[in-house]
User: Fold this.
Amino acid sequence: MPPLADRHGRRFPYLRLSITPACNFRCRYCLPHGYHAEAGSAGPLTLDEIARLLRGFAELGMQKLRITGGEPGVRRDLVEVLRTAAAAPGLKKLAMTTNGTLLSRRLHAWMDAGLNAINVSVDSLDRAAFARITGHDRLDDILHGVDMALDAELPAVKLNAVLLRGVNDNELPRWLDYLRDHAVGLRFIELMQTGDNLAFFRDHHVRAEALAGELRERGWQALPRALDDGPAREYTHPDYAGRIGIIAPYAKDFCAGCNRLRVTATGDLRLCLFGEFGIPLRKYLARDDQLPDLVRAIGGQIGRKEQGHFLHQGRTGITPHLASTGG
Ligand code: SF4
Assistant:
């Protein structure tokens, strides 16, 4: 089944599924006051609901799945979720984004369950700066987990660093030292405005594109993009084991290559990270025989997907913070 396509000629083989809005970190650009469950909010999708959801997206050509949160590691049944996800028909890549707090302890259980790609949030290689950004002094243990993933030859190991003016935007030399002998894909992610972070955004936003120029000056070469690649513009250099990707959502044509849909932890389909609405799918996940209704419900919405986001107009849609949709 070819992946779903929208009216702008884009195809969507890539699903990002949040399995919990909860997180054990309190990153300043996302959940500066930590996670607090909303009173009366529905619990996250159960294993059975997740299995039914993924069968629906498999019918619609899903090839890549990313498990996100909040922090997926706070879900006690994460290994069962990964095993359920890995069983989705037609799935080629099962990835997860994590803050790494459980990585060194749980990596092998996750890999045994079918995980074959991981993105770990490491916003700084400076221990004190890392603790200031995340609220936790855990850098050393997390980097140890990253080394374990490389030693275990996990097919794809990436690090996500959100660029913050005056906080970590002076760390390129340090990162280059690290990438000389660490075969990871480092992603520099431009800070995005969300519903809750306007003041922080104004104080710390810096355009990621400027970094691309600096990399080119240092001899880094841009790589072509694959159909199910994430939004990063990737660069390599013969003297470095690692690669660098730049995610610049404010760049011109950023959304032209959009290839992903999202589902929140409570089962709402999001056509765009900064979309103005969510489509509840949970009512189609109660029984196996609802599969045709689920497929119709998802397929019937793709026509509403906008050409791109409206972040330049300061419109952040219904996304209060990235933990609510899994980024
Ligand atoms: S902002 Fe929306 S349209 Fe643009 S790439 Fe992200 S999800 Fe796609």
The first helix runs from residue 47 to 59. The domain at 4-324 is CATH 3.20.20.70 (TIM Barrel). The chain is about 25% helix and 20% strand. The longest strand covers residues 156-163.
